[in-house]
């Protein structure tokens, strides 16, 4: 049995692949460029994280002499956890914006 090659289908598939590849490059750049700032509940710690999950800045706000080491460490830990959640949220939002034109990739 001889099968015919559907060249239009192949060209369409190649073009779609190129579009997805270009969007992936765009997404990769965006996750490193988009930053989210998170503050501890008491306002003593501020962490900046990009959508890739890299912490780009840590700021201790306010006076430290009124806080114990344990309190400050707890504030840092909770803020780092919140920053990881914020990075995940930003990454998911970027993914949806970048790949929304490709319905088959929405659930990836």
Return the average pLDDT rounded to an integer. 88
Which percent band covers the strand fraction? 15-25%
Estimated structural class: alpha+beta
Shape: rod-shaped
Radius of gyration: 22 Å
Distance between the termini: 37 Å
Tally of individual helices: 2
SSE order, one letter for each helix or strand: HEEEH
Number of strands: 3
Biggest β-sheet: strands ordered side by side in the sheet: 1-2-3
Q: Sheet bearing the most strands, described?
A: 3 strands, antiparallel
**Helical residues, percent:** 40-55%
Low-confidence stretches: none
Structure description:
It is built from two helices and three strands; from the N terminus they run H-E-E-E-H. The protein has 108 residues and is of the alpha+beta class. A three-stranded antiparallel beta sheet has the order 1-2-3. Helix 1 packs antiparallel against helix 2 (69-99). The mean pLDDT is 88.
